[in-house]
Amino acid sequence: MRIARFTTGDEPRFGAVGQDENGETVIAVLQGDPLYRAVQLTGEKVALEDARLLAPVIPRSKVVGVGRNYADHASELDHPMPDEPLLFLKPNTSVVGPDEPIVLPEQSHEVHHEAELAVVIGRIAKSVPKEQVPEVIFGYTAANDVTARDLQRSDAQWTRAKGFDSFCPLGPWIETDLDPADLAVRCRVNDDERQDGRTSQLAFDVATLVSYASEAFTLLPGDVILTGTPAGVGEIRAGDHVTVTVENIGVLSNPVVPAD
């Protein structure tokens, strides 16, 4: 099932994306928030073209990032591969949805795209064994772990470089029925394909990442874990359009704009 968060000009709502009897893509409106309570169909349907998709989740707690989880990406930045997952945090204020702008901060002169598969946590999880990880995952979405690369180098830690407002586009929806073992993860900037990897290349797979993160801190419903980015990261500039595609999930596109 594909769960979208959307608006038609009113308050954000949730819905299940699918086809109606005429083969048109519609959103079947849900009552309630599927991450926090039982929901039911309202009977209302909204044509996808009449809705504005929002970030499918705004984490109440945190976004957990994973660095250097593809060997080819670590190599292109001349970094060694870690012996264990390399975790960092992005604030929930960095999250934006489809078609919302990535805003280039004045403090940076080298901002990069990073296409990723994202995991959405569905229940409170602490010290979860790897074999039980599927029980705590609500679903998956596409992400762009936008990074101020120059600040990442100069700060010698990643909080500011990864945490600016708009530096975590998510979308277009959450796919709840998905095997994450071998999915294509791609990124285009304008008409130029920059990244083309597969989750089968992850140094640490989804189960390992969720289990490892849950050993460090409690994961809450709506928390997001970014699984790492393949090789091909590069600079984005004002006027660019960045498109992240994750196989069997969908397409996440965002324009790039300068700071006001």
Number of strands: 20
In angstroms, what is the radius of gyration?
Answer: 18 Å
CATH topology of the largest domain: Fumarylacetoacetate hydrolase, domain 2
- The helix-and-strand class reads mainly beta
* CATH homologous superfamily (4th level) name of the largest domain: Fumarylacetoacetase-like, C-terminal domain
CATH architecture group name of the largest domain: Alpha-Beta Complex
Question: What fraction of residues sit in β-strands?
Answer: 35-45%
Q: Helicity, in percent?
A: 10-25%
Mean pLDDT: 97
**Oligomeric assembly:** single chain
Pfam families: FAA_hydrolase, Rv2993c-like_N
Protein name: 2-keto-4-pentenoate hydratase/2-oxohepta-3-ene-1,7-dioic acid hydratase in catechol pathway
Domain Fumarylacetoacetase-like C-terminal: 62-257
Keywords: Metal-binding
What labels would you give this structure?
mainly beta; 260 residues; 12-stranded mixed β-sheet; 2 domains; 20 strands; SH3 type barrels; Fumarylacetoacetate hydrolase, domain 2
If you had to describe this structure to a student in words, what would you say it looks like?
The protein folds into 2 domains: 2-53, SH3 type barrels (Roll), CATH 2.30.30; 63-258, Fumarylacetoacetate hydrolase, domain 2 (Alpha-Beta Complex), CATH 3.90.850.10. The mean pLDDT is 97. With 260 residues, the chain is mainly β. It is 11% helix and 41% strand. It contains 4 helices and 20 strands.
What is this structure's SSE topology?
Elements: E1 2-7, E2 13-19, E3 25-31, E4 40-47, E5 52-53, E6 63-67, H1 71-76, E7 86-90, E8 95-96, E9 102-104, E10 111-113, E11 115-121, E12 137-144, E13 147-148, H2 149-155, H3 159-163, E14 168-175, E15 184-189, E16 192-198, H4 206-216, E17 224-226, E18 234-235, E19 241-246, E20 250-258
Parallel strand pairs: 6-17, 8-14, 9-20
Antiparallel strand pairs: 1-2, 1-5, 1-14, 2-3, 3-4, 6-7, 10-13, 10-18, 11-12, 11-17, 12-14, 15-16, 15-19, 19-20
